[in-house]
Design goal:
- This protein is 38% helix and 17% strand.
- The chain has 216 residues and is an alpha/beta fold.
- The chain has one domain: inorganic pyrophosphatase (n-terminal core) (Alpha-Beta Complex), CATH 3.90.1640.
- It has a six-stranded parallel β-sheet with strand order 3-2-1-4-5-6. A two-stranded antiparallel ribbon has the order 7-8.
- Helix 1 crosses helix 2.
Length: 216
């Protein structure tokens, strides 16, 4: 079973992209796969899972040496399990700069493209294969999150075009969905006092605006 995961402290793209790619491997490529997370998803990602009625993947932080895996939304060893170079890395799909430091057991499939979101890359890789609405919805949510609803300077025409096509297929108002997502991201009510203290004075970007959380 191939395990697909992104980076620690999963945001929406690092939560949704493993789900999208595990679906693709299972249903299109015919390769048994499972999406897993390296930690609890943030509040925005948790909202996206609920909104599209998608079960939260299992959280896993330890992997047996030699286990087959696909890495998405990162290529940075510092954001991955400590024994990452002992795993059987089969593919990497990412939109960040190449960091270096990963070792593989043989040649692998690497896709790193200058787009704002891993899900946009996956849309290109999946091609004409029909996707269920929930996969389209998660893909759209990932793009809206990573582009800050197209306000991020990393947004490309491709990201926007894919999001618009997905929204049209789903009959979704992108602005409304993005507003709900960003509101969920700014909601700290689910955090314990200890967790809030750890976040004290840290900066967070929500809806294109930067703010600080401070706990007195």
């Amino acid at each position: 079973m191939i395990q697909v995961f992104g980076h620690y402290s999963p945001d929406t793209d690092s939560t949704g992209s493993p789900i999208i790619w595990a679906w693709y491997l299972n249903e299109v490529a015919g390769q048994p796969a499972e999406a897993v997370l390296l930690g609890e998803p943030n509040t925005e990602a948790a909202f996206v899972l609920r909104h599209w009625e998608c079960p939260k993947p299992a959280i896993r932080t330890e992997f047996a040496d030699g286990a087959p895996v696909v890495i998405v939304d990162t290529n940075n060893p510092a954001e991955l399990p400590a024994n990452i170079n002992s795993l059987d890395i089969m593919a990497i799909i990412d939109h960040h700069k190449l960091v270096g430091g990963l070792e593989t057991k043989g040649p692998i499939d690497i896709t790193i493209r200058p787009l704002a979101c891993t899900a946009t890359i996956m849309h290109e890789l999946i091609g004409d294969a029909p996707m269920p609405d929930w996969v389209k919805g998660i893909m759209l949510s990932c793009i809206l999150s990573d582009t800050l609803e197209f306000r991020s300077p990393t947004t490309t025409p491709k990201d926007r075009a894919v999001a618009e096509a997905l929204a049209a297929d789903l009959g979704v108002d992108m602005h409304d969905l993005a507003a709900q997502m960003f509101a969920a991201k700014s909601d700290v009510s689910a955090f314990s006092a200890a967790e809030l203290l750890k976040m004290d004075a840290k900066k967070y970007a929500v809806g294109g605006k930067t703010f600080r959380i401070s706990v007195l």
